[in-house]
Amino acid sequence: MRKRKMNIMLCFLAMTIVVAGCAKSTATNPADTEVKVAESKPDANATTTKKVVSTSGKEVELPGKITRVVNTWPSSATMMIFLGAGDKLVGVHKYVKTLPFNKLIYPKLEQIPTAEENPEELLKLDPEVILTASDDNIKSYTQVGLKGVNLMFNNYKTMKESVSALGDILGGDYKSKTDRLVAYIDGNLKKVQDTFKNLREEEKPVVYYAVDNMYSTTGAGTIMEEWVTNGGGKFATSDLGKGMRVTVTPEDILKKNPDIIVVSGGEGSKKVVQSFKTTPEWSEIKAVKNNKIFVIPSGCFAWDRFGAESALQILWAAATFHPDLFVMDMKEETRKFYKEYSNFDMTDQQLEQLLKGEVVK
């Protein structure tokens, strides 16, 4: 009996050793390990991120795929609409909804909530990113856990940076569109620069730019100064102030005696043009006497300012200031531009209205 028990115990011990040995062999077998790694699947809930650099140089980490954007800077919001990204907008500045052309490009605009700068209110819109024109705004967004990117620009160099960053944010096919838009800006700048590279100073007209009223303009260091100078003109107010808000007097303009006056288009532009023509203080100015007053087109955003159409403004300025030197079919160029980036087929009537600086509805 004892012998039988002993044999059973020895058999059990032997089986235990064999099983342990097999287990150890399985755990350390490289081939088995590789098979297990190959068969493992990534976590379906894992999220990717991407880093985007704002025009103020700050790096921001965002979700890899962006589907919910609040855009509190009107020109940037209109650029998204222009590029066909309206469905990504979950909040826009109220001014965007006052621009009729945006509703032609994106009929669902009215359905998008109005976005204020209040961080608590923005939280309710549940955005993945807020696009803005100020780093100060971003500080307040961060305090409530929101991400913001500053896309402000005020010249063609930073415009290209802003457009490129917007493509990084939107991703996918939108990045391809923004890359093409950046190349288009570069191409237009080269066209006008090549045309006017030998233009003498005395051949360049003095150009006065007006926005909102006769005495409201901009100064040095602005995108307005750039499209005037690139278009073969002299910016009348370069030495009268800097930045986006410069107020002039009739005496200032009489001294400059501009050859050409250009007025920011859209709502109210006809009234400004009429003021130039009927105000006695302006009657002796060359631009008024020679009827050289032009209204700048306005589409998704005013061409002369910060929208995507600023790329077209380069060509418009050159063709307006020097129609004999810079020959451009602006109708055809404009039609192609909106078709390519917005997939919008403009009617002949809409095109006529647009190029006259009228409100297109």
UniProtKB/TrEMBL annotation:
Protein name: Fe/B12 periplasmic-binding domain-containing protein
Domain Fe/B12 periplasmic-binding residue range list: 68-325
InterPro entries xref list: ABC_Transporter_SBP, ABC_transptr_periplasmic_BD
Family according to the record: Belongs to the bacterial solute-binding protein 8 family.
Keywords assigned by UniProt, alphabetized: Signal
Keyword Signal: yes
Keyword Signal: yes
Signal peptide location: 1-20
Lineage: superkingdom: Bacteria
